[in-house]
Amino acid sequence: MDKKREGTLAIVLLALIHGVLASGAVEVQPSINPAVVGGTVTLSLSPSATLNSGSWAVGESLILTWLGDQQAVFPSHTGRASVNVLTGALTLISVKVADSGVYIVQSTNPQLKANVSITVLEPVSNATLRTTQTNLMEFNSSAVITCSVSSGSSVSFLWMNHSSEVTAMDRVQLTDGNSTLTIVNVTRYDQGPFRCHVFNPVSNATSDPVNFTISYGPDNMAITVNGQNTTSFTIGSNLTMLCSAQSNPPAQLQWAYRGELVNTTGPLLELFSVSEDQSGPYSCLAFNNRTDMNSTITTHIMIAKSGSEQQAVSVWLLPLLLLFGFLF
To answer: Residues 133-149: pLDDT tens digits?
Structure first.
């Protein structure tokens, strides 16, 4: 009698051990993961096995059961789920985002249990940008751009300015899951174009660009004379002074000589056959009627006789000086 009980116990233990080994050795392999909405996913067992009966569930909800060559699909998956009654492979068609979850297969003949996590994603489409205003003032305005998509699940957002990625820093804020870009106290370098790249593991989309018109200046003024850095010229020279200023919209330019306005506007001031009494400070005044700011730059022009003329005068004066000294 004791030997008989020992034999029965051994058989039960072997069966349990076999079941545990079978559960641990079998994995569920999806045909695709993540899957795309509307697609088909097949969950197969690896290594393959012949299953006489079993069931599939997602979370705690049964999908179907089978026994021999008969299968019963629960209403939640009617018309969308089927099982290969020989291998136990589950096929899902027309999958939805709601089909994401942990899928569990169980069988008693042979005994096994395995699971896999599946994600179903909706493709990204039609990324668009929205902004409240595009005309901004340097240092006094903030740019706010919001990116949205017509469809897409589990999406991520990447912002680009020209070909450079935009990252959060002192003046740059990324909020609402990075879908909103805010640039505080914009500068002239924040004009764009800005684009939003939206993606998930199965698709991506890029928005059309948005540009900002940023008013700034005038500043960084410069004056050149005859295209040179020198400010000393000889009597009789023709002078062309060019004034420049960084400004948007372009600054209005006015010239002044010795603090008095002259009847010349625009970037050029031309003087022909200059004389010595035209030496002095020349100023360019810049005004931006949108920023209501102004700036001034001054250059001092020296007009004198050439070296040869001065030498000739000296040679002519020398005899007179000697005569004057002799008489004295």
So the answer is: 999 999 999 999 999 99
Beta bridge partners of 289: none
Portions of the chain given CATH number 2.60.40.10: 22-121, 125-211, 216-308
Length of the chain: 328
Q: How far apart are CA 100 and CA 22, in angstroms?
A: 26
| CB-based contact 88:46 (threshold 8 Å) | no
For domain 125-211, give the CATH number: 2.60.40.10
pTM for this predicted structure: 0.75
Rounded-to-integer distance, Cα 218 and Cα 247, Å: 5
Tokens of residue 169, six digits = 């820093």
Q: Assign domain 216-308 to its CATH architecture.
A: Sandwich (2.60)
Report how far residue 320's alpha carbon sits from residue 230's, in angstroms, rounded to the nearest whole number.
36
* Domain 22-121 listed as CATH 3.40.50.10490: no
Low-confidence ranges of the chain (pLDDT < 70): 1-24, 307-328
In angstroms, rounded to a whole number, what is the distance separating the alpha carbons of residues 240 and 233? 12
